[in-house]
Amino acid sequence: MASANKDTGLEYLVNQLISVITNDGRNIVGMLKGYDQATNLIIDESHERVYSTTTGVEQHVLGLYIIRGDNIAVVGELDDEMESTLDLTAIKAHPLKPIQHGA
C-alpha cells in the first residue's frame, strides 16, 4: 500500500496520530503509516478505545493494524499534546452504536 494517492485527502495524516471510527462502532487510535486507493489504512502502535458508562475507557493494544476502507466511518487527526494530558480512566461514555446505512 502506498501513501501517494492524494485523492482521498489522507496524505497529510501519514505519520500522524489519528482516530478511526469504524462502521461497527469501534474507535481505533494509532499512527497512520499508509493507505491505498480503496482507503484501506495501515495503522501502527494502535489500540482500540472501549467506552463504558460505568468504568473509564479501556485500551486494548492492537499493534500494527489494517482497517478495510469499506469499514471506515470517520478518520480524524488527534493532537499529541492534548492526548498526553487526557486521563482516559476518568472518561465515561456510551459505547458507539454501529452505523446503519440505507432504509
Order of helices and strands: EEEEEH
- Total domain count: 1
Q: Can you tell me the overall shape?
A: globular
Mean pLDDT: 89
Helical content class: under 10%
GO cellular component, one term: precatalytic spliceosome
Family: Belongs to the snRNP Sm proteins family.
InterPro entries: Lsm8, LSM_dom_sf, PTHR15588, Sm, Sm_dom_euk/arc
Domain Sm: 5-81
Task: Explain the overall architecture.
The chain is mainly β and 103 residues long. It has a single domain (6-80), classed as SH3 type barrels, CATH 2.30.30. The protein has one helix spanning 80-85; strands spanning 17-22, 27-35, 41-50, 58-67, 72-77. Strands 4-3-2-1-5 form a 5-stranded antiparallel β-sheet, with no helix packed on it. The longest helix has 6 residues, at 80-85. The protein is globular, with a radius of gyration of 14 Å.
